[in-house]
Amino acid sequence: MNIPENLLYTEDHEWVKIDGDYAFVGVTDFAQKELGDIVFVEVDTIDEELDKGESFGTIEAVKTVSDMFMPIGGTIIEFNENLEADPEAINKDPYGEGWIVKLKIGDKSELDELLDKDAYSKNIDA
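Now predict its structure.
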């Protein structure tokens, strides 16, 4: 299972890549494998400020639909529009082309509550 060292993770199987005052968010390799073939991603919270834990959209696989939750608070400023035509990019490249949203970080101290690679690995092995 691919768990990059340079990212932060949630117990809900989302990853966060920090880029200054911004963060990219997607679902982990583990999550995409659990979901199966992803057929649709919906994010209707662009330009909205959301708190940590609030739903920012849904991800639909062949057999299920799951909410996606904010790993940290912030304002969603961009949706990866490539996912409209190619949602299975999440299955093929969850940490690259499969990123889902970019947000402006609200409170950087919330980053301290996220998991590093080792803690996330233990979380999925539990």
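The mean pLDDT is 95.
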